[in-house]
Design goal:
287 residues; alpha/beta; 9 strands; 52% helix; disordered N terminus; binds ligand C2E; binds calcium ion
């Protein structure tokens, strides 16, 4: 067994080294990419499950790379969090996403108002490291001021790692954001240590039920009851629910039956380029 272990070590070492170099290289490239604003934002529609109306877009970052192609966030967000590079990257995301939202508003707000619909919202992911940064609230303020979008059109998606922090600064910042009028969403709800008490402690306006719960909806009675229960409680507290990762019509139908208002997933649209998002808006806005 020992010999086998040794052999395996030899076998894996080059791969390990390659991994480490890639990581180092990724860090340096990230710096350049941040300096040159080399990232792209894609936008995934969030829709009203009953009417099919477009309600919001979630901004999802991508990194077009010479040799690696379009690099997905799972490959660099964690690294950027560790190194602190997420702070400037996240500020860029907020600025770009709110600017894009201003363009959507120019395109669709009057027609939407005629149909009784509020301006399109933009959901932006915020990592724990980014929220912890002392300048974060100012970055949000600046993005609102520069873009001119109404604060209610911006929703910050926070994970439980942000909400678990219950120190004074976190509370004050959360309250300030609430007072600014921006929406606050709990992302990936149901994973990790998510607790319904966050809904009571923080000014939460949106709860996003993680895809893993939606996957099992049609398969188990318990899953269904769980999602229905969460939806009911949220509704009672005036918190809007978004079901994540809807891929099949059956899942959408079960969600509408239980009264879940909003959803997002490949069934409706993949993340879109800004141009594709614009035509999606045009096709989903009846004049
Ligand atoms: P997330 O916030 O939970 O975003 C949803 C992810 O699920 C996205 O992956 C989206 O493309 C994918 N998705 C949407 N609908 C479906 C579906 O029906 N089926 C399946 N299988 N997947 C679906 P993406 O774009 O690769 O992003 C991964 C994660 O990276 C995000 O998870 C988020 O945590 C993080 N992320 C993305 N953009 C940003 C950003 O600008 N800042 C920060 N801090 N994190 C970001
Ligand atoms: Ca998210
Ligand atoms: Ca999510
Ligand atoms: Ca996720």
């Amino acid at each position: 067994a020992k010999a086998a272990g040794k052999r395996q070590w030899c076998l894996y070492q080059p791969a390990l080294q390659a991994g480490l170099m890639a990581r180092h290289e990724l860090n340096e490239n990230l710096d350049t990419a941040i300096a040159e604003s080399a990232f792209r934002l894609y936008y995934q529609p969030i829709v009203d499950l009953q009417s099919g109306d477009l309600v919001a877009f979630e901004a999802l970052v991508r990194w077009p790379h010479d040799r690696r192609g379009m690099v997905l966030p799972d490959e660099f967000i964690a690294l950027a969090e560790e190194s602190g590079q997420i702070v400037p990257l996240g500020a860029w995301v907020l600025e770009r996403a709110t600017q894009e939202a201003a363009a959507w508003h120019a395109l669709s707000t009057p027609a939407r108002a005629t149909s009784g619909l509020p301006p399109l919202r933009v959901n932006v992911n915020v990592s724990a490291r980014q929220f912890r940064d002392a300048g974060f609230v100012d970055v949000v303020r600046d993005a609102l001021r520069t873009s001119g979008i109404p604060p209610e059109s911006l929703v910050l998606e926070l994970t439980e790692s942000v909400l678990m922090r219950r120190d004074d600064r976190a509370r004050t910042d959360m309250r300030t954001l609430g007072e600014l009028g921006v929406g606050i969403a709990i992302d990936d709800f149901g994973t990790g240590y998510s607790s319904l008490s966050y809904l009571r402690e923080f000014p939460i306006s949106v709860l996003k039920i993680d895809k893993s719960f939606i996957d099992g909806l049609g398969l188990s009675q318990q899953q269904y009851a769980l999602v229905e229960g969460i939806t009911r409680i949220a509704d009672t507290l005036g918190v809007q629910v978004i079901a994540e990762g809807i891929e099949h019509p059956e899942q959408r139908d079960l969600l509408t039956t239980m009264g879940c208002p909003l959803g997002q997933g490949y069934l409706f649209a993949h993340p879109l380029t800004p141009d594709q998002a614009q035509s999606f808006i045009t096709h989903h806005t009846t004049p």
